[in-house]
Amino acid sequence: MNLREASDESESSLIDTDSTILKTTADVELKPEDIIAIHRIPFKKGTTRLIIIKLRHNNAKSAIMHKRTSLKTKGYKLEDVVTKRTQAGYFYTPI
Q: At the top level of its lineage, which domain of life is listed (predicted)?
């Protein structure tokens, strides 16, 4: 997701930004209590780092992934990472 990284970025600011984008772009309500963990992961030097989100319930992830196309048309790309460890998570990736 093309979210510029702020120098004072925190977990709560990422949650707020992510929730706002999902609500306005895909009409999906993501509550802070739905999120177990959210952070950026290392990426190529000089590019926007990816955001990874671990969700508490699979139904929240399903609602988001069903709106993946509408998010992509507005400049956001989601990657679904399905392994036993990461079943309830997804990635925002820069397009």
A: Eukaryota
Q: Which two tokens stand for residue 50?
A: 């990816």
The DSSP annotation for 12-76 comes to HHHHHHHHHHHHHHH-----GGGEEEEEEE--STTSPPEEEEEES-HHHHHHHHHTHHHHHHTT-
Q: What is the spatial distance between Cα 79 and Cα 86, in angstroms, rounded to a whole number?
A: 12
Structural domain range at position 26: 11-93
Read off the pLDDT of residues 2-56 as tens digits, 9 standing for 90 and up: 677 888 889 999 899 888 988 988 898 988 898 988 888 887 787 788 888 888 8
* Whether this model's pTM surpasses 0.85: no
